[in-house]
Specification:
By secondary structure, the protein is of the alpha+beta class. The protein is built from ten helices and 20 strands. The protein has two domains: 219 residues, P-loop containing nucleotide triphosphate hydrolases (Rossmann fold, 3-Layer(aba) Sandwich); 122 residues, RNA polymerase II/Efflux pump adaptor protein, barrel-sandwich hybrid domain (OB fold (Dihydrolipoamide Acetyltransferase, E2P)). It is globular and about 65 Å long.
């Protein structure tokens, strides 16, 4: 879907990025100043690399050696910015129609009514941007970008300027976009909750360079990336399926490769896929199967890595045993590590309280 290998200088800042992304949602993650926005601007043609090559779905957008540098309007990439950038003199309907007018001759147009329905824009069509909430403006901006029939949608921290309720409002629309219109997205964010919920692939940037890329769960399982992916919020990403709804106790059982996980009720149908994050700080370890405890979720496993840290705590990576390795993180004190002799190869039981599982990223 996307093949990038480029170098660039933005002021005194150097960017060197090489990666390939498949169809779906690819997240660019990293701290502020890592070069994420500059990289996306180069994909869009708003900034020019010094050298390299950018290819989208087999078409070369930029090639420094061959002198190819398509103008932004020739690249057919949709772009949703942090700010909606709607035309203030146009109604919502006018802004949406403008996007549709950008579709080149010979390219199939996206169904206008389908976009309006999906993004729940019907009640807003006659209003002007200044009368809309931040979340409503971003929904219109997304609709305008989709109606331009892009081959790839770029989203540069589209939820960064929204409060938590508005972010929660927009996330389901972005999830549905990919399914409904089969469009690939490059999604820039420094919010790991958004990435865990939305992304298929994760590219981590630091100081202008791509330092890691891979599946979201694989990247989150790497102890060496903790300084970039976040120490406090670090945890394992589990891809699960809703397997049971316990109406009596208001619990939901999620099934995944490592076993079953009970959570407080999640309002989703049986069989629905759901990706969740289990924070390392919410996982405790025992050397023997625990008994007489209130914890519902206990997984037998083996320690495969112990992190290095100067503080009083240490992160432990555990394989909880399945045909394809499923990892959990646990954050324990160094005293516990020493007294329990937590080293690679040690058999342990990982305990997760049902109430502790991060629900902010649930679909």
């Amino acid at each position: 879907m996307l093949d990038v290998d480029l170098k660039a200088r933005v002021g005194d800042f150097e960017i060197e990025a090489a990666f390939r992304a498949d169809a779906g949602i690819t997240a660019l993650f990293g701290p502020s100043g890592a070069g994420k926005t500059s990289l996306v601007n180069m994909l869009a043609g708003l900034e020019q690399p010094t050298q390299g090559r950018i290819t989208v779905r087999g078409e070369v957008l930029f090639d420094g050696d061959q002198g190819i540098d398509l103008a932004p309007e020739q690249r057919r990439l949709g772009y949703v910015f942090q700010e909606s950038r709607l035309f203030p003199h146009m109604t919502v309907a006018g802004n949406l129609s403008y996007g549709r007018r950008l579709v080149p001759e010979g390219i199939a147009k996206v169904d206008y009514d389908a976009v309006v329905d999906l993004l729940a824009l019907e009640p807003l069509l006659k209003r002007r941007p200044r009368t809309l909430s931040g979340g409503e403006r971003q929904r219109v901006a997304i609709g305008r970008a989709i109606l331009a029939a892009p081959r790839l949608l770029l989203m540069d921290e589209p939820l960064a300027n929204l409060d938590a309720p508005r972010r929660a409002e927009i996330l389901p629309f972005i999830e549905e976009l990919r399914r409904e219109f089969d469009i690939s997205i490059v999604y820039v964010s420094h919010n790991m909750d958004e990435i865990v919920r939305l992304a298929d692939q994760l590219i981590v940037m630091s100081q202008g360079a791509v330092v890691a890329q891979g599946a979201v769960d694989e990247i989150n399982a790497r102890l060496d990336l903790r300084p970039l992916t976040g120490r406090w919020d670090a945890g394992a990403v589990l891809t699960t399926t809703v397997a049971e709804q316990d109406s009596r106790d208001r619990l939901t059982r999620l099934s995944f490769q490592g076993g079953d996980l009970w959570l407080p009720h999640v309002d989703m149908a049986i069989g629905s896929p759901l990706r969740i994050r289990v924070h390392a700080r919410d996982v405790s370890l025992a050397l023997t199967p625990p008994s007489g405890v209130s914890v519902l979720n206990v997984f037998a496993g083996e320690v495969i890595e112990v992190g290095q840290d100067d503080g009083p705590q240490v992160d432990v990576l555990i394989d909880i045993g399945s045909p394809q390795q499923t990892h959990l993180w646990a954050r324990i004190t160094k005293r516990s590590q020493r007294e329990l002799d937590i080293v690679p190869g040690r058999k342990v039981h990982a305990m997760i309280k049902a109430m502790a599982v991060d629900r902010s990223g649930l679909g």
